[in-house]
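> tool_call: predict_assembly(chains=two)
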Amino acid sequence: MSRDQNPREESADELEGRLSEWMRAAQTGDAIAYRNLLETIQPKIRAIVRGKIREDAAAEDVVQNSLLSIHRGRSTYRAERPFGPWMRAIVRNSIIDHFRERKRRGDREVELVVEDWADESEGNEAGGGVLAPELAAALAALPEAQREAVTLIQVKGLSVAEAALQVGISSGALKVRAHRGYRAMRLALESTRENGEWESARLPRSTGKTRSRGAG
Amino acid sequence: MGIGETTALDREDEIERCRVTGASDRLITELVEDLEPVRPIPRLRLAFAVILSLWAVMLGLVLWAKEGDAGVQSLFMDWIYFGSFVGLMVASFGGTISALAAGVPGREKVEIRGMLLSLVGLLAAAAACLFGVYELGQSAVPSPEGIDAMCFQEGALLSLLPAGVILSFLVRGWAAHPVRAALVALLGSGALGAMIVHMSCGFLGPRHMLMGHLSVPIVLVLLGIYPLAVVLRRLRR
């Protein structure tokens, strides 16, 4: 079919080409192209998700999880293949994950009372004497937002959804903060070890409460 | 419900929508800040070619070490051997393709077809051996003691290298279904290891082929599927 005969298809092809180009640029670290890509696909992802999930908050959570999955799995995109099917496969899997998770959790979050667990593990806070000194120092050195995310998930043992609820941000945003925190802590601990200052650092799970609920 | 109330509810909905959309916009900003260059995953064909080449080298080395005492010489003389050989070949091809596809979003069709092919191949190979055991009955030559375990160990060891390549691909990829990915990765690599043993083993009793050769992918799947799925699931988070 010629381009003149079907302008709608032509525009879809153009968009596909642009998305693919942005993704390729993002794989090389081009932040502007990446922002363009994410901002362009966000409404498309939302439209797909809203077709399956009606509740606003749940749908938005899946949109954010999809964006996060696209971010983490961006190395699996290959330029010679179309971008759309790749993106839709990730979104589809996020939707399936959402329904699986909801079935597993049985909407437990609805009954969750934040105040009940807000102060339940005060003693496990960074520097509270329970964490190994190196670990506590690495945790304390994190920016406030990352420290809060890591503490809630790894020290207090909350699920991502619960921690996000407590902080008042989306699960996706909390996961990103925690992910950055883990990376910064790993680097700090590695540097401590290389400098011969390593004494008793252990993984957070071995010192604090273990995570008792699945990640949201 | 009055008109004023409806408007108020609509406004609340709108505020909620803005709140959640705002969270997504913030997430985009954070993801952009988190961006680092990544190397695209290799093409499936290339990864498959690498595995196949490694497998061929391993086969060559094993055949060379055994100096011609190989079962593959009787490929067209023994239908039980031939049936199990073809079944294993199909199982290893399907399992490997499926495992590689499992690491790439959007390749689910290849993944499912490969998995089915692999399972059918393994069942066909097992059926050929079981039929051979049934048909030969008492007249079957008993396996020398310890040969089943020896072939199993050899097959398991030989499947380590293909398993390593498949897993490195999966680790770099994005396995949407960790259990399925673990199943096909173990099935494919186990079948590849079993193929080498099958082609290099000099003992061709159907019971031995079942217990010493075909058992490799089956046992690997039974033992490894859960831990591997857990690892793949954790890597995805």
